[in-house]
Amino acid sequence: MPRIGIGYDIHRLEPGRPLVLGGIEVPHASGLAGHSDGDALVHAVIDALLGALGEGDIGTLFPDTDPRFEGARSLGLLETVMGRLRSRGGTVVNVDTVIVAEEPKMGPYIPAMKAALGPALGLPEAAVGIKAKTNEGLGPVGEKRAIACYAVALVDLPD
Fold first, then answer.
1. How confident is the model over 57-86, as pLDDT tens digits?
2. What is the number of domains present in the chain?
3. How far apart are CA 35 and CA 131, in angstroms?
4. pTM surpassing 0.85?
5. CATH number of the domain that 22 lies in?
C-alpha cells in the first residue's frame, strides 16, 4: 500500500559550526545549530518517512534531551528509521526535497547530497529529488539566520 509523508525542519545558523546538509559537509562560515549535527535536510526526510509510517516525529524518536543523540550524525538517525521501515516490510519509492537558503548556493553540492542520501534510503540517485531555493530576503531564512528544508516521501508498505 503506498503511503506519503511530509517533513519540515529549520535550524538557526551558528558561526564556526560545520554546515552539514544532505549527509555532506558544505563549505560555509556558519553551520546549523542543533543537538545532533543539525542536518535539516536529513531531519526533514526522517520526518517524512515517520509520517508515512504513521509514527511520531524526529523529536519523539530522538529527543534533544537525550545525551545519546548529542552530536549524532543525522545519517545514522536515518539508518535507524530505515530499520523501522524495513522491519514493517516497507520500502521507500522516492523522496523529494527542497532546501531553502540564501547562502551558500547549494547547486554545486546537490550531486554529492544525492550520492549520500540514495544509498541511505535504498534508492538510486534518480529517485532522490533535491532542489534549492532562496526565501527572497524574507524572514529568518531570507535574512541568512537560518536554513529550512522540506521533504516528501513515498513509501510502499504491505497491508
1. 999 999 989 989 988 999 999 999 999 999
2. 1
3. 25
4. yes
5. 3.30.1330.50
